[in-house]
């Protein structure tokens, strides 16, 4: 029942650019639009010249392998939308639609930033209302949607679950929402070495795999259909 997929790797870091192999296989398996995250690393959204080269190359490859849209965000050191970089990246993305991701939640002035995104030509913005979750940032999300007046889609995301979706949709007047709808699945490994971890100490455990939960997607979709 999902209407669109935002395809990412590295969900522990908030999402990074997926492999082109993953994009190819996903495109073979689904019929809904697939928007590809363009984010070369975790951390902030202030990018070096080399990282910009990587982003441009990833956009070209994603288009080549069937991306239906792209998702990125870039900021200046003082917390504003990096209009110069965004303009350059949007030019590489054309003619595909582009979403500005939750880098928006790190801006200095969200109301000014929204106007900047509209003037640049982004189709939508993903936001938790500059707070820890969409529920916490609900009042700002509503204010942004009212300011947008249909010129850009304001899409709430961040901590959305079956328990709070109705409140978020009704409170924000949003017509779309974003969530991972994930659950943990136990690894199939029978032999396990408890003394070794593949990543940093805060990374996800090796023997628990995060998966998109079909039941959660269906439930969220049913809730949304009753409201929208």
UniProtKB/TrEMBL annotation:
Signal peptide: none annotated. Transmembrane segments: none annotated. One of its GO terms (molecular function) is copper ion binding. GO terms for cellular component: cytoplasm; nucleus. It is found in: Cytoplasm; Nucleus. Its main location: cytoplasm. InterPro entries: CutC-like, CutC-like_dom_sf. Keywords: Copper, Cytoplasm, Metal-binding, Nucleus. Gene3D superfamilies: Copper homeostasis (CutC) domain. Belongs to the CutC family. May play a role in copper homeostasis. Can bind one Cu(1+) per subunit. Homotetramer. HAMAP family: CutC (MF_00795). This is Copper homeostasis protein cutC homolog.
